[in-house]
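New to this. Comment on this protein:
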Amino acid sequence: MNRDDIIRKVMLNLDEMVPEGLDDIIQQEPLPIYDQVDQLLDDCTNDILKTVPLQYCSTIENVSLVYNKNYFVVPTGYLRFGSAMCSDWESSVTRLVRPEYEPDLYKIIKNPIITKGIANPYAAITTKVVEEDGVDTTKEVIELYNTEETSTTLTYVKSCLAEDLDNRLVPALSWLCATKILLITGRKEAEVANSTYNEQIKLLL
């Protein structure tokens, strides 16, 4: 759906929540309501992509590991992990270990003597200093264990513009954006709009 049509859906939701009109909202804010919606739309899109089931929004790419290392830098636009699969694994990894939340497990998976084999591989997401064009930069990386491969098939959710979102997600997007507009402007109707948004999400589950 094109961007203008999505914005119009948000405006219709706002009109439903505030039937007396949006004049008071417009007067309180420095930007016209249409422009406020436009500014919020892509952030709301990313919030939707982090929430809905993967079948609505996943991207599959073959990703190369850093030479002679067990990790790759997360792709540009990476929002959310789906899975990783190496050709020498018997099953894919569908969750990432986070060292800040699971330090003991992270220590275990880094130990090749303790870690289970290719039937139950592990992956972790962390940060590393990597060299790019001769400059050391801190990047988010995904580490893979129990593999001798130099690449992996990565399924993940990538950020996108509102107009590139699956049309099935637009109703939820329009209600999330309406909720945020109502919250910003201090309208009590935000609670009702948020409930409608949650109902739209449940329909996708």
User: Anything to note?
Assistant: The two ends are 22 Å apart (CA to CA).
